[in-house]
Structure formats: structure tokens, C-alpha cells
């Protein structure tokens, strides 16, 4: 299986990259880590793929690589404020960062357990978001942390909360001429607790069947919940928050009975496309586990 | 249109003309004659095309050759020094960790990336490091043993 022919464009700045996107529109595609895009292009150019997609949809004519722009893998951190993740920051970059380990343990945990080492070296967080998969591993933790995507084009700039970024399976709010220049992740307010849970078909490397990311911000040391975010992945057309379950925690101390009740409520907040009984059951179980763990974390 | 590029493979620099849609795996095997990196699934699942870029494991079937410029590329051919096998290779031989051999280059390079960062890994860490490399002979036990043994010495 080979890649279809395309022209490779290597801008030296993000401005050049957005100018190229402005010129070529849907003829062009941004290449970050390649772990989704290149697989997709190979499949499209195969005999089987061309039957499914047709010759016209074989792929973009222009691939815009961001490797030539300096500084785009960088993590920037302003203590107590935000963490900035670059457009081609890899999972390995995040997993290797002691700052993330100490200040964003939820994100760190998600990145270091993501897929396998080779995919962690290449794959990027922004790429995972832009691919728009309902089962994207990294999107629920970003939603739980209240992350925002800074989206730029040659004509404008806007910020999109990550929870609003995906609109349907493999569809995002990104327009043809836009790219994600940065993820901005606010520092959770102390004291807080967190948990990241996921289950797959067989091995840890498989696609997620259920992803749960929980962030509980406490009003005080006795762990009354001031604000909760419960983000779910792979159980609906897009990663989303379990708003009703979240509101049940508001101003409460979580005890076993309440956690049990929430875990029952949360199952009804999912709408899985396949294996729905199993996914609902596992969402319920993993949310119970996550809330219990977040109280201790 | 072909682009001219310079790749540093196993410490040696090569000037090449490459189509931009060519993967690093294709260029290593077909233009440089380095057939140690294997083409298995060619879709990023099997790990038999694993090479190290700046010390980190990558799937060369999912890296464009043009994007490997400026990085230190290490393939299995670059591991032995002056005809002497690398300790991990030696240990694979000693432990019978090579069966059909197809996964071996990828396994050894994944192991090298781990041991360079973490010279005394636990067995669980070794298994995690190999989680992206499939062995269809299912010879995992001996592979893990071989790596654990290297880590002891």
C-alpha cells in the first residue's frame, strides 16, 4: 500500500501555512504526526479504498508539513495560569515533561498511556483533536481540563472550547483555511482530584470503547465539590461532557451512595452507535471508578 | 516533483532525490538498500518498520522521507560496531529470541530506545516498550527474557 502522489509544501512560519491553506483550501491537508492522515491516504489509494471513496476522493493534492516551522513542538507553561501545547507537540513530548507531570497529571497520564511508543513519538495532541474521531483518547481529558483551541487562518483568529470542537464523527468546526495554532489548558484550581479511565476491545493499544476523564475542583480540604467536569469519549457521535451527572456533584461531598447514583445517571447521558449495552455498562462502571479515584488523587 | 534531500542514516549522510509522497521505509529499502527495516502491514500496526529518529522509536512506514531530514536515523544495520553485535543483538541470539526474524529489527530497536532511557527496566516496562511490535511466531517470552538479560549486564 503506497501513498498517492501529492505535492509537499513546507512553510517556514505559521503565517505562511495559513496563507497556503487560504490558497489551496480543500485541496490541501495539514500534516502533523501522520499517524492518522498517512494511514487514511494509503487506504484511499489502495484498490479497495478507491472503490469505497472513488477516484476523485483519493486525497489532497497538497500536503502541508509543519515540521519546518520552528518552535511548534514546544510546551509553554505560565505557572498557575495556562499550559500551551503546540500544533505538533507529540504525546511523547508531553509524557516526558516534568512540568505536565506535576501540574497537569490528568493530561500526563492520558499521554503516557496512549497507544504504543512509536505512535506516542509521532502522534500529536492537536492532530488527535483535528481528526475528529468520536473515540479520540486525548479529547476527553482536554474537555475535563477546560482546554481551548486557538484557531487561526489568514483572515482571522478565534478560540474554540475543545468540547465544541467536534461537530459529528470525523467532522470538526475547522474551516478549510483554518488550523489549530495552540491548545490552551487552564491550570485546575487547587485542591482538585482527577482520574483517567479507558477500556478497549482487547489490548491497551486498541481503539477505545469508552474513555472517561474526570476533574473535581474542591471548595476546601474536606472535598466539597465546587466544580466537576466529567468528559466521555467513544460513547456518542462526539466526545462530550455528562452535564447532568456533573450537576449532581455540585456543592456535595461525594459518598458511595451519590457516586452510585451518578454512575446510573451517566449511562443515560451516552448514545453509543454500536455495542451500546456494553458501552453504557462500562461508562457507568468507569465513571464510578473515576469519581472514587478522583477523591483520592 | 522530486525533492533533493539529505538524510543521516547510521551516522552517514546521503544526498538523494525523492518524491515527497515516499515514506522513509520506502527510501531506506529501495533507494539506500537498507532492508533491515521490514514492510509488514505498512499501516502503522505491526512495528516491523520501526527505526529510531533522534533516539525515539518511529514507524518508518508512517514518516515521509522529506520529514526525516535533519534527524539522526538509526536502523538495525547501524547497531553492530566493527562487526561486533550490539549487546541486545547478542542477547537475542543467546536466548533464541529470533524465530522467523521478521519482527527482530523492530523489536531490537524498540528495546534499544527503552534501554537508552531506562537501563534497568522492569519486565512490565519492557513489555510496554514492545507493545507496538508484533511477533507472529509469538516468541514474546524469549524476546522479553533477552532484553531483561541485557539490562542486567
Can you walk through the features of this model?
The complex is a heterodimer of chains A (297) and B (153). Chain A folds into 3 domains: 7-65, 2-Layer Sandwich (Uridine Diphospho-n-acetylenolpyruvylglucosamine Reductase, domain 2); 75-186, Uridine Diphospho-n-acetylenolpyruvylglucosamine Reductase, domain 3 (2-Layer Sandwich); 192-296, Enolase-like, domain 1 (2-Layer Sandwich). Chain A contains 12 helices and 14 strands. Chain A is 36% helix and 24% strand. Chain A has helices at 14-24, 37-45, 47-53, 91-95, 98-103, 105-112, 117-122, 125-131, 139-144, 243-249, 256-268, 276-296; strands at 7-9, 28-31, 62-65, 75-77, 82-85, 148-152, 157-161, 166-168, 171-172, 179-186, 192-200, 208-218, 225-233, 240-241. Chain A has 297 residues and is α+β, with helices and mostly antiparallel strands. By secondary structure, chain B is an alpha+beta fold. Chain B has 2 domains: 3-78, Roll (Ubiquitin-like (UB roll)), CATH 3.10.20; 87-152, Orthogonal Bundle (DNA polymerase, domain 1). Helices cover 33% and strands 16% of the residues of chain B. Chain B is built from 5 helices and 5 strands; from the N terminus they run ββαβββαααα. Chain B has a 5-stranded mixed beta sheet with strand order 2-1-5-3-4, sandwiched between helices. In chain B, β1 (3-9) and β2 form a beta hairpin. Chain B is globular and about 50 Å long. The mean pLDDT of chain B is 96. Chain A binds chain B through residues 1-8, 10, 31, 34-35, 38-39, 42-43, 63, 65, 67, 92, 115-119, 121-122, 203-205, and chain B through 1, 3, 19-23, 26, 42-44, 47, 50, 53, 56-59, 62-64, 66-67, 110, 113-114, 128-129, 131-132.
